[in-house]
């Protein structure tokens, strides 16, 4: 069945020409014959431009939000879903018939759904590398799964340890290590978070939210020690489908 009507969707971010979302939704619209539906990148250097996009883009029905605007976009929204409010980060925006902007977080859903099949009984604690918007959805998902977590940041704080504090004891205690930083994203594919990779074992899961490249240096280093590895592609697909559901309800 052909679905005919003009609807626009897009991705809000900075330096996002590499983006997964545009390709994913463009293919979906072609395959499922959504005629008149388009998906575009709104690549902006600062969040203050956001209201102009909303004002000047006709037929806009929904947006995905990526780095670095998952937290910065919140003050511009009219309403947040309960989960987005708890998480404190938004990666999906629905534009209602009345033109109101409502923020959701589908990252946590995508992460939870993609991590769950990997979990075994001994996976009780996780280290989250990074404290940006993406890390918040990860933390919320871990809470829902009953997994304790600790954030790792460049500077230690009340809510995070710093990278220099990670040692053999840490790796024994935390058997899931999640990279929620952009370190290692294309084109800087040789970069990786500064952790002692030799401490990974086959008991560990190394999960990288990055999907480009498919195997980051972080994942390569962990795999070399027989750790189970997973990149962020499935998470992205799951969160995108959840966003699509939200835009259409």
Automatic annotation (TrEMBL):
Q: Which InterPro entries match?
A: Aminoacid_DH-like_N_sf, NAD(P)-bd_dom_sf, Shikimate_DH-bd_N, Shikimate_DH_fam
* Pfam families per the UniProt record, alphabetical: Shikimate_dh_N
Question: Which keywords does UniProt give here?
Answer: Amino-acid biosynthesis, Aromatic amino acid biosynthesis, Oxidoreductase
Gene3D superfamilies found in the cross-reference section: Leucine Dehydrogenase, chain A, domain 1, NAD(P)-binding Rossmann-like Domain
Q: Does the keyword Oxidoreductase apply?
A: yes
Q: Where is the Shikimate dehydrogenase substrate binding N-terminal domain?
A: 11-93
Q: In which pathway does it act?
A: Metabolic intermediate biosynthesis; chorismate biosynthesis; chorismate from D-erythrose 4-phosphate and phosphoenolpyruvate: step 4/7
Superkingdom per UniProt: Bacteria
Q: Which PANTHER family match?
A: BIFUNCTIONAL 3-DEHYDROQUINATE DEHYDRATASE_SHIKIMATE DEHYDROGENASE, CHLOROPLASTIC, SHIKIMATE DEHYDROGENASE
Supply the name of the protein: Shikimate dehydrogenase
């Amino acid at each position: 069945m052909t679905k005919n009507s003009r609807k626009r969707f897009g991705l809000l971010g900075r330096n996002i020409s590499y983006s997964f979302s545009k390709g994913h939704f463009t293919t979906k619209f072609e395959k499922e014959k959504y005629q008149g539906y388009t998906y575009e990148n709104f690549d902006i250097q600062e969040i203050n431009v956001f209201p102009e996009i909303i004002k000047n883009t006709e037929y806009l029905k929904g947006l995905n939000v990526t780095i670095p605007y998952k937290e910065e976009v919140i003050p511009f929204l009219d309403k947040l879903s309960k989960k987005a409010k708890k998480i404190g980060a938004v990666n999906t925006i629905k534009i209602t018939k009345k033109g109101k902007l409502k923020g959701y977080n589908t990252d946590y859903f995508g992460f939870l759904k993609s991590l769950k099949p990997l979990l075994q009984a001994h996976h009780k604690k996780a280290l989250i590398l990074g404290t940006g918007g993406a890390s918040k959805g990860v933390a919320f998902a871990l809470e829902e799964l009953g997994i304790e977590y600790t954030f790792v940041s460049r500077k230690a704080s009340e809510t995070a340890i710093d990278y220099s504090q990670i040692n053999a004891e840490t790796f024994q205690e935390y058997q899931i290590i999640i990279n929620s930083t952009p370190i290692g994203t294309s084109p800087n594919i040789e970069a990786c978070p500064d952790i002692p990779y030799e401490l990974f074992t086959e008991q560990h899961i190394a999960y990288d939210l990055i999907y480009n490249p498919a195997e980051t240096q972080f994942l390569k280093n962990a795999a070399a020690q027989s750790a189970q590895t997973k990149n962020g592609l499935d998470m992205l697909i799951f969160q995108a489908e959840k966003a699509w559901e939200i835009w259409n309800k």
